[in-house]
Write a structure and sequence with these properties.
This protein is mainly α and 213 residues long. The chain is built from eleven helices and no strands.
Length: 213
């Protein structure tokens, strides 16, 4: 992946970082160390300030679209579709979502979304935060502003980490990619295990029904 960006965007690092920040799960937590890595770009690395704003902009470009799609799903589709999507979100982020519900104040919802997006981990980010914000009863500008504030905090955290370990930016980049890869692999394994268990239960029920007949 690194070679792809270096070979195709070697003369436009800003565009490479922007695209990297737009990729789901990668976003700013990978884009910023990617932009500051001397091992990748040599002396052409972006300045910390430019890396911050490019990564922030890239991560926010899909945000408004995701919010609008989520609002469309909630308002224009049947309640079943919305409830099914929300139930899946609750299954993944159940403990976090316990702190916010339809009865919560607008400020609490906005603060929760911002806090959720601000944590630079694979499970959080602008995509998931925008989806949740779009499904909550927030105005479009409130949802987007909440995500933007959270994304800015997340970028600041990653940037400070990269500046503190300036000589290890490339390793931060690799660790971030490794964490995301492990999370994706774990999610896949868990999903497969659940499907196998569900099929096993169905087969067991069918066997019981046949035996009773």
């Amino acid at each position: 992946m690194v070679n792809f960006f270096v070979d195709n965007f070697g003369n436009s690092i800003v565009l490479a970082v922007l695209i990297m920040a737009m990729i789901p799960t990668l976003e700013s937590k990978v884009a910023i160390p990617f932009a500051l890595s001397v091992a990748i770009w040599g002396e052409n690395v972006l300045s910390p300030v430019l890396a911050f704003f490019v990564a922030l902009g890239g991560s926010l470009i899909p945000s408004l679209f995701v919010i609008l799609v989520a609002r469309f799903i909630k308002k224009k589709t049947s309640g079943f579709v919305h409830e099914k999507i929300w139930s899946r979100i609750e299954t993944r982020y159940g403990k976090r979502l316990e702190k916010v519900n339809s009865k919560s104040s607008t400020f609490k919802k906005c603060a929760w979304v911002a806090l959720f997006v601000s944590i630079p981990l694979p499970l959080t980010g602008t995509y998931s935060g925008s989806l949740i914000a779009g499904l909550l009863d927030l105005k479009i500008w409130q949802a987007f502003l909440s995500v933007a504030v959270g994304a800015a905090i997340s970028c600041a955290i990653v940037l400070v980490l990269c500046l503190f370990f300036a000589n290890s930016t490339y390793y931060i980049f690799l660790v971030a990619l490794g964490m995301i890869a492990l999370w994706l692999a774990a999610s896949l394994v868990i999903s497969l295990c659940k499907r196998i268990r569900a099929k096993g239960r169905k087969n067991s029920q069918k066997l019981v029904e046949v035996t009773e007949e």
